[in-house]
Structure formats: structure tokens, C-alpha cells
Amino acid sequence: TPAHDVVLQPLRIGSIKNCRLGQNVYVIGSPYGKVNFNSLTTGVISGVDVDWSSLGAHYGWKVAFTVDSAGHPGNSGCPVFTTDGIVRGILVGGFSPVLISVMPCDLFLGDLESIRLMFTQDRYEHEETVEYQGWSGYGFKY
């Protein structure tokens, strides 16, 4: 109904090149797998040009930036905004709950489909199957 219609604006995506150390950021995510439980945390850009060659080289990623906003398991993949409302990157992991790594939008804007395919390929290349021996006590082999 018209009373419930909402006009959504697409997110604006920008470069980390326009940012500086100490600039305020916001992280919106759903920690710990909570469904429809979004959290908003604030922090600052605490590091740029972090070398991820050893971790992201096979994806072509060598640069990340860090923020000191709280990031918890389940927040991976959430947007990281600057105060102007522009998405500057995607949270990908952390060294602690308050030192998180962010992939800049600059790295993936040109070719999102290729990135999706890389992750799909990586999942199947590294998938392991585990064979369990024994009985569960309920007559099911696991």
C-alpha cells in the first residue's frame, strides 16, 4: 500500500584514496548470525596500505585498510561507511574485536562476477570431507 511504500536509494560507493587516517567510519552488520539484528558501531580508519599479499594474493588482493570499530563474527561482508554515507569497503576479518580489516571498494568495483567465481572455485578446491567412524548409540552411523 502507498502508506507502506519506501523509496530506497542505492548505496554510494567510493574510493579509499579520498580517506585519511583518523577519519570516522561506521560499520553496520549482524553479529553472531543474528537475523534482522543489525548493529551499528563507530570507529576511525587506523591504518592504510596494509600488505595482505600472503593472505589475499591468490585473489589479487594486496591492500586492505584497518579500522578500530568493533567487528564480531558474523559481521564479515558488511559495509564500512564514512560519515558522508559513502561505502569505502567491506569488512573481511579482524585481528581482534576492535582491529578489523576492510577490503577497499577500489579492489572489487570493476569485476564483481569474477570475485564471486573466485570464491566459488576456492570453496571447492579446499573443501574437505571427513569420514566419521562409529555409532551414535541411536543406530545411526555418523
From TrEMBL:
InterPro entries the record matches: Peptidase_S1_PA
Pfam families assigned to the protein according to its UniProt record, in alphabetical order: Trypsin_2
Q: What is this protein called?
A: Serine protease
